[in-house]
Specification:
With 206 residues, the protein is mostly helical. It is built from twelve helices and no strands. The radius of gyration is 19 Å and the shape is globular.
Length: 206
């Protein structure tokens, strides 16, 4: 059992997640180790094991935090608007996600690896967070797409989340990837995450 006040426990947990997030801004997932994360926190590396047993658990916690923040943005769309046209709805949802590049990058990862190397407790919390996100989307669709049959709203949600997995790779191609596409005769078109998400979502709800 972890010793300390709830505030201290929560604070240290956040420090570990923040360290992971900072490393992920400049390093790839496979390059980040518990040692690297331990070098970023003001306490001993063995202390990390009181909170997380693997780096995948830390990434899963970071994922949870990003999902929670996106959920807050979606709930604001629901609460702050009485009516929205389809165009306005697509624009607001697109902006809520495009403003979260860290989340887009995490979504593009192989989530199976994170889940396989995480304890059931952490994985269950991740799924609860995901459930809250889905519920927020459901509330938005029920409110602003009332004329759309419920089964269509469900399909829309599945299609949208399947699409989101590819947003980061398309909008953040590396120079090496661009060079390879040029060599292969593929024309690369620059497009922002917002433009891509907005365009796809508008097509879905129309």
């Amino acid at each position: 059992m972890i010793k300390g006040t709830p505030e201290r426990i929560a604070g240290r947990r956040e420090e570990i997640i923040n360290a992971c997030e900072k490393l992920y801004q400049t390093m790839r997932f496979k390059e980040i180790t518990l040692k690297e994360i331990g070098n970023m926190v003001p306490f001993s590396r063995p202390t990390i094991y009181n909170y997380f047993q693997t780096k995948e658990e830390i990434f899963l916690a970071l994922f949870c935090r990003e999902y929670e923040r996106w959920t807050v943005s979606l709930e604001a769309i629901y609460k702050e608007n009485e009516r929205l046209t389809k165009d306005e709805l697509a624009a607001k949802i697109a902006r809520s996600l495009a403003d979260r590049p860290q989340l887009l990058k995490l979504i593009a990862m192989n989530i199976y690896d994170m889940e396989e190397n995480s304890r059931m407790e952490q994985l269950t919390e991740f799924k609860r967070t995901y459930r809250r996100l889905i519920d927020a989307f459901g509330a938005i669709f029920d409110k602003f797409l009332v004329k759309m049959p419920q089964e269509e709203r469900k399909r829309l949600l599945y299609m949208f989340f399947s699409f989101v997995f590819g947003v980061y790779p398309i909008t953040n191609a590396t120079e090496k990837q661009r060079g390879a596409m040029r060599n292969a005769g593929i024309e690369f078109e620059e497009i922002s995450a917002y433009e891509l998400i907005y365009g796809f979502l508008l097509k879905l709800i129309e």
